[in-house]
Amino acid sequence: MTQKYSPRRHRPVVSALAAVVLAGGGAAFGSVATTAPPLRPITVNLQDKAALRNGALYTVHMCVACHSLQGVRYSSLPKVLGLSREQFLATIGTNGSHFHDTITSNMPPAMMEAYVKIAPPDLTVIAKRRSAAWLYTYLTSFYVDPSRPTGVNNTVRYNVAMPDVFAAMQGLQKPVMVEGLRFGSPAQVAVGVQPLTQGSMTQAQFDQTARDIVTFLYAVAHPHQQQRARLGPWILGLFLALSVLTYLIYRLYWRRVITSEERWWRVGR
Amino acid sequence: MNNSKPSKSSGVFGWFDQRLPISATWRSQVARYPAPKNFNLWYFFGSLAMLVLVMQLATGLFLAIHYQPNPHLAYWSVLRGIQRDSRWGWLIRDMHVVGASAFFLLVYLHMYRAVMYGSYKKPRELLWLVGIFIYLALAAEAFLGYLLPWGQMSYWGSAVVTNFVTALPVIGKPIATWMRGSFVVDLPTLNRFFVFHVFLMPMLLLALVLVHLIALHQVGSNNPDGVEIHDNVNETGWPRDGIPFHPYYTVKDLFGVSVFFVVFFWFVFYNPAGWGLLLDKLNYTPANILHTPADIHPLWFFLPFYAMLRGVPDKLYGIMAFGGSFVLLAFLPLLDRNPIRSIRYRSVLYKFNVLMMAASFLWLGWIAHGFATEHNMVYGLHVTEVFYATFLVLPFFNRQRSVRAKVLWLVIAEALVWLIDVWMYSINAHGWGLMLLTDWIPTLYLLVVFGGALAFPAMTRDAEKLPERLTAGGIFH
């Protein structure tokens, strides 16, 4: 029996994932020590229609060149942005898609795989999975890295496949490197960026643009946020009131049991 | 039940009542069904679990109407079709997601109630056993349903679990392929999981719950004092400590339902993902057969079993380790044969043991929540030993033990724990350095139980006088 368990052969058998983890592969998921750069704080204000519209403009005309938002239909946007259908079509438009279509990139995913080795992830998916602060940091933290095929890397997404599409707006950036850990091994880790060249926007203008994009992505990834906030207190209030009411009814009914019996009965002791 | 008595009702209801025992069943099973007066907080969870079952069936119906069991369509049929395109779809879906976790929480509390008050003892052994089968059916139902959104964790979780059977030599792989209908989790797997989730398992669950209720009404409810109320009846045969289920417990349960819904809807409206515990963040990413996530783990309610599985460095033995915990649960009436039902009248060390049963289970969940490092695997193994021990030491408490018996129990139990480590070392699974870090957990636990019994015999003594009637009542008693 024991020969079957020869040295160190079994650990990976526990599950497929154990093998991946112990080999040190895979993405960092918290527990495999990797020095994480601080995320840039952002407050998402879903009432800020100007930010939402600006974000929608950049998303639909820039991001959607490669990414899709399969979860979102163009027809759902006017309400989010506080525009009429006509205003929406006149200002932002649908990239030639039908108004009721989902926001789908015209770039075939297979072609993107040929270009950058990976199909661009759907932005509804990413915006739901990642926090607003992560998205904001990601968008503003591309830095020059000659070792990469695209010439750039990213502080929060190491070895990112996406090229720095913001270079013209933001200018190029250089990394702030520190001695840290990557997948448990000592390494130079980028924890921030510094401007290298000047783009068409000032840093403040670009940061604002990035925040607008994040606000828009957050809004479409959490479409029922406001409905939840509006309805929640009423439903909770209803059941809180019902709790009080049913408790009183319970006491009313049980009074009969309590008084007709011997002294031992002590409700709510 | 008095079925021979003709119905006194007239009119339309009477017509039905003479042909179907409606009022007779209502009388015998609800309005004149005697329940002990002293049910406390722990007695809310059974009826709440039934409520959640009904809620899951109702929300599941609407989800099934809009869901597409096809790998190309499944993900977006949930994320767009149900959550966005269907009116109130997001609410129905979140209720179903939170409902699944609520179901497990309520069932765990319900089971622990039974453990505390000895509700598995004679004459309720079958009631307990049916309950274990309900739990197993619920676990299967949750596992099958988890694949349907076709997210990354759905997919890889199902891949890992459907691979369990490959632990069997020779026939394992063909069986796994037959079960999946494919060599990997794919369209045939999704189709059958969908059918099992919406049709087969709900039917089984409903049938088992019905049997559970019938078995309950055959023997009557236990209570926090463990006193058999039917042993003390008045001239008319009504238990002196009993009250009719309706209206007393119906109004009380309505209060429980209201409070439950406050918590439930707080999650639904404000925290449907439950800090990533009720809905894994990774499941927001569509399934990708070419990309295995670095960490595949189940939702919170299966985490303790996951810790048992990965604590053992072999697939087959790991599966036996977590499967064995269900066997222990099923065998509980045979392990604990002490005539005293309620924990209230059991010894101090028995109380400690029952506390550790829950604590080690939660502890295992906490360990499995961490990354699958070698340390966490060993750590999980040692806490698994404690969880197993909390069941296996139960026969020790069946009666007063001699000093020699106590020493024997201590030596044998400690030896077993350490032999497992020797075995681990002998198969080169783990080194001593790592194992010694957490070895103190089972060692200390057994030392407290048996060493405590040796040093302080009073701590193994159950209450000498048991009450003949219920002692006191109230929600928080």
Topology:
The complex is a heterodimer of chains A (269) and B (477).
Chain A: H1 16-22, H2 49-61, E1 69-73, H3 77-81, H4 85-91, E2 102-103, H5 109-116, H6 123-129, H7 132-140, E3 142-144, E4 152-154, H8 167-170, E5 173-182, E6 185-195, H9 203-221, H10 225-260
Antiparallel strand pairs in A: 1-2, 3-4, 5-6
Helix pairs in contact in A: 2-9, 6-9, 7-9
Chain B: H1 11-19, H2 22-31, E1 34-36, H3 45-66, H4 74-85, H5 89-116, H6 125-147, H7 152-162, H8 172-180, H9 187-219, E2 242-244, H10 245-270, H11 303-311, H12 315-330, H13 332-335, H14 348-369, H15 374-392, H16 403-426, H17 432-455
Helix pairs in contact in B: 3-5, 3-9, 4-5, 5-6, 5-10, 6-7, 6-9, 11-12, 11-14, 11-15, 12-15, 14-15, 14-17, 15-17, 16-17
CATH topology of the largest domain in chain B: Cytochrome Bc1 Complex, Chain C
Provide the β-strand percentage band of chain B: under 5%
CATH architecture annotation of the largest domain in chain A: Orthogonal Bundle
Largest sheet of chain B: 2 strands, antiparallel
Class from secondary-structure proportions of chain A: alpha+beta
Q: Tell me the greatest interface.
A: A-B, 63 and 65 residues
The shape of chain B, in one word, is flat
Whole-number total of structural domains of chain A: 2
The mean pLDDT of chain A is 83
Average pLDDT over all residues of chain B: 93
Q: Can you give the helix content of chain A as a percent range?
A: 40-55%
Summarize this structure as a short list of keywords or feature phrases.
heterodimer; A: 269 residues; alpha+beta; Cytochrome Bc1 Complex, Chain D, domain 2; 2 domains; two-stranded antiparallel sheet; disordered N terminus; disordered C terminus; B: 477 residues; mainly alpha; Cytochrome Bc1 Complex, Chain C
